[in-house]
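Researcher: Sequence recovery benchmark, item below. Answer with residues only.
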């Protein structure tokens, strides 16, 4: 029986040792070879003095060594803290400090960015590293193990991307990751015939849960990449037998733009499952993706605080709307008003969740944990949603992003959906900017398709046809490229800062 995430790899290595699990540009890795790498990494961690509940920061991009280190942390009982190597030195230093890390590991063999970070770090040595392509920092002797036995099931600490605030360390459990691995593999009917295109960073819940855990559970293999490239994705779809394509909406938008700009003719002979998540889905984008691939674009709702998606659309029941489907096994949800009571059916409110994937709390931040956990084991997500007539969940936006205009609630996602349908618009985002009288101004940003120009008068006529006056943006700004995180999330705080600056 599986109790920790490394048990998944061990079982595969025993049952099908010579089966290829990883397809990378530099070669392939079998289950047995990856298990051997995990064994070596485990010994490296033990030799460095890593103890159960110690935090180990992995400065990494996707590669075999990164997965081996994840499994080694599980074996030792340490808690991995993944950091995308493309983050700045200051951001990484802040994570090391906040995690009270015992050790830092750098996947220098597969990532130039990780190597640069290793070279900047003090007392980094490869002399004691048996695992090729990895360098370790000196041990931080001041790091304290975690004394709370209730947190012993922690597998990883995932630092939120901080798109709307300061990142927090989400303690994700082995139980939650294993549970979602089973759920995701079952929904997608994953088996040994499947190859998953895997560029999503395994420093994020999307990459660890939906990609890695599900593939190990189902026995599928990964076409592993360190970052997103539309050209490489098209090559892999055509020539590397990719059957599963997963990513945030921005990934599909970038792919469509590349195809249009390059006049590419995509081929995808083995593709059978296409999925998006991690951000709101625009209906226009969904329809464009479905026309491209000739099959449904599935959607789900999840977040770092829940180890994977809590809602998923089903392959046997594709949807023509942007609902996130129904709750997965074990997941529960409520739609709650500001009074803490369930709102009437069909009304919008805050999404509350509970289930086996729920986080164990924010690392050493009792105040932040108390702000979101409610009696009865419920987690207040800060996301706004409603249930459709068939019980499917529609995600409307973020509670903190809701704009108050003329005394009315304005949901950015509604405006974004209208702008996204306008000819020439590739991506769009809407933010609120406070005004002197306490009102909020609605500001829209639009990234255009290659070669397109914006006819603002026509866009405003389009908005007038579909939106009430108080919902219409006061300003519409064209932007070269939307700011996004490494895992494809839109950085609305950067757009809001830009909108505030241009208002002053």
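Model:
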């Amino acid at each position: 029986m599986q109790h920790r995430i490394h048990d998944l790899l061990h079982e595969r290595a025993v049952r099908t040792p010579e089966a290829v699990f990883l397809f990378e540009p530099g070669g392939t890795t079998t289950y047995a070879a990856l298990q051997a790498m995990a064994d070596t990494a485990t010994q490296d961690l033990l030799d460095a003095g890593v103890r159960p509940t110690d935090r180990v920061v992995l400065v990494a991009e996707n590669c075999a060594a990164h997965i081996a280190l994840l499994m080694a942390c599980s074996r030792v009982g340490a808690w991995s803290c993944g950091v995308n190597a493309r983050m700045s030195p200051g951001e990484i230093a802040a994570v090391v400090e906040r995690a009270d890390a015992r050790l830092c590991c750098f996947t220098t063999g597969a990532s130039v960015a990780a190597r640069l970070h290793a070279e900047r770090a003090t007392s980094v040595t490869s002399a004691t590293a048996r695992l090729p392509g990895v360098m370790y920092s000196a041990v931080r002797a001041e790091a304290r193990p975690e004394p709370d036995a209730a947190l012993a099931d922690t597998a990883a600490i995932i630092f939120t991307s901080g798109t709307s605030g300061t990142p927090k360390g989400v303690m994700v459990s082995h139980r939650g990751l294993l549970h979602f691995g089973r759920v995701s593999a079952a929904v997608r009917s994953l088996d040994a015939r499947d190859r998953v295109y895997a560029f999503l960073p395994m420093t994020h819940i999307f990459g660890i849960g939906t990609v890695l855990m599900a593939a190990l559970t189902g026995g599928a293999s990964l076409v592993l990449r360190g970052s997103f490239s539309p050209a490489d994705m098209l090559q892999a779809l055509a020539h590397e037998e990719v059957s599963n394509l997963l990513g945030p909406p921005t990934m599909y938008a970038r792919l469509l733009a590349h195809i249009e700009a390059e006049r590419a003719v995509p081929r995808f002979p083995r593709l059978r499952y296409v999925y998006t998540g991690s951000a709101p889905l625009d209906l226009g984008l969904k329809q464009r993706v479905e026309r491209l691939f000739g099959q449904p674009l599935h959607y789900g709702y999840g977040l770092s605080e829940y180890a994977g998606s809590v809602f998923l659309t089903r392959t046997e029941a594709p949807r023509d709307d942007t609902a996130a489907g129904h709750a997965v096994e074990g997941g529960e949800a409520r739609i709650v008003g500001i009074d803490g009571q369930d709102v009437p059916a069909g009304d919008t409110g805050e999404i509350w969740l509970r289930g086996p994937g729920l986080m164990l709390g924010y690392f050493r931040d009792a105040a932040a944990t108390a702000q979101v956990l409610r009696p009865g084991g419920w987690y207040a997500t800060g996301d706004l949603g409603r249930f459709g007539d068939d019980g499917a969940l529609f995600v409307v936006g973020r509670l903190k992003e809701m704009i108050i205009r003329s005394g009315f609630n304005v949901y950015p996602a509604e405006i974004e959906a209208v702008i996204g349908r306008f000819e020439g618009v590739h991506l769009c985002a809407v933010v609120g900017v406070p005004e002197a009288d306490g009102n909020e101004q609605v500001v829209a940003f639009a990234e255009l398709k290659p070669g397109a120009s914006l006819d603002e008068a026509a866009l405003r006529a389009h908005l007038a046809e579909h939106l009430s006056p108080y919902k219409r943006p006061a300003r519409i700004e064209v932007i070269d490229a939307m700011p996004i995180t490494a895992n494809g999330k839109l950085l609305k705080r950067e757009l809001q800062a830009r909108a505030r600056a241009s208002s002053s």
